[in-house]
């Protein structure tokens, strides 16, 4: 029997998400090898110490692609998606994107899908810190009448965003809506907080027919964030409430985000979906 090929992945960025992927793969030991990490100038030595000598730490996309990964995993930012996405896909290499807020720009989304179609690569969009997207994808085969996604985080998780200038975040004592609008605007204005707004839109009713609400809620249990998904379609209704742990070093991101990425990658190595 032929030995099954191990999946070679390369990471863009080395923050909380990438660190969690390293930890999960060490613990679960799937047939996956992280062959390289692309980091910003000045972070090479620090990152190399953390990942060990067997993983290449590089400064350019060209150097990352020389490692011949099967899939490149973006774990950095919307800027990284815009800067590197098309080139990766054009070279026939699969790309996983978690900063999906970049695709609030419909032209960029179409450009990346077209690049994947030309080269035979695949663009992977993990579910991130939410559940129920499989149901939403199925519902869009019929008629979707309404989709609303609500992201709920403690007030301090919205620091460094437009909410900080519009609200006194430290003085918020009850659940407060800080944004209501389109997925594209949510992803653009809150690039580190609201990528899921665009993911939900792309999975369901589209960028123009999805309602987004961002909420600061000081009553959440410490160290958590939450979300709500409401869908009405001709096949039924979906209502989902999620309460999850935030990453200890990054209250803007849920632990489930990295876990969903890891599960999506591990699934590529399995003989079945589960």
Topology:
Elements: E1 7-12, H1 16-28, E2 32-38, H2 44-51, E3 56-58, H3 61-65, E4 71-74, H4 78-90, E5 94-97, H5 106-119, E6 123-124, H6 133-139, E7 144-153, H7 163-166, E8 176-181, H8 183-189, H9 195-203, E9 211-216, E10 224-233, E11 236-247, E12 250-254, H10 255-267
Parallel strand pairs: 1-2, 1-4, 2-3, 4-5, 5-6, 7-9
Antiparallel strand pairs: 7-10, 8-9, 10-11, 11-12
Helix pairs in contact: 1-10, 4-5, 8-9
Task: Based on the model shown, name its key terms.
274 residues; alpha/beta; Rossmann fold; Dihydrodipicolinate Reductase, domain 2; 2 domains; 6-stranded parallel sheet; 6-stranded mixed sheet; 10 helices; 34% helix; globular; L-aspartate dehydrogenase
């Amino acid at each position: 029997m032929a030995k099954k090929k191990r999946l070679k992945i390369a990471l863009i960025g080395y923050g909380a998400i990438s660190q969690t992927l390293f930890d999960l793969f060490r613990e679960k030991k799937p047939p996956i090898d992280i062959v390289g990490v692309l980091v910003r100038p000045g972070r090479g030595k620090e990152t190399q110490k953390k990942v060990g000598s067997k993983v290449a730490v590089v400064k350019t996309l060209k150097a990352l692609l020389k490692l011949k990964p099967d899939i490149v995993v973006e774990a950095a930012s919307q800027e990284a998606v815009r800067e590197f996405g098309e080139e990766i896909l054009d070279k026939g290499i699969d790309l996983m994107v978690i900063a999906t807020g970049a695709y609030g720009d419909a032209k960029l989304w179409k450009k990346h899908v077209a690049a994947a179609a030309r080269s035979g690569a695949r663009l992977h969009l993990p579910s991130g810190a939410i559940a129920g997207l499989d149901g939403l994808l199925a519902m869009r085969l019929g008629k979707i009448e309404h989709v609303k996604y609500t992201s709920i985080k403690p007030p301090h998780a919205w620091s460094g965003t437009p909410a900080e200038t519009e609200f006194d975040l430290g003085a918020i004592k009850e659940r407060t809506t800080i944004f209501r609008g389109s997925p594209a605007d949510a992803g653009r204005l809150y690039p580190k907080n609201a990528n899921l707004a665009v993911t939900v839109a792309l999975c369901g009713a589209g960028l123009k027919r999805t309602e987004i609400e961002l909420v600061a809620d000081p009553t959440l249990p410490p160290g958590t964030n939450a979300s709500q998904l409401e869908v009405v379609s001709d096949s039924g209704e979906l209502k989902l409430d999620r309460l999850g742990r935030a990453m200890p070093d990054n209250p803007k991101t849920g632990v489930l985000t990295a876990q969903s990425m890891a599960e999506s990658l591990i699934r590529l190595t399995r003989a079945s979906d589960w």
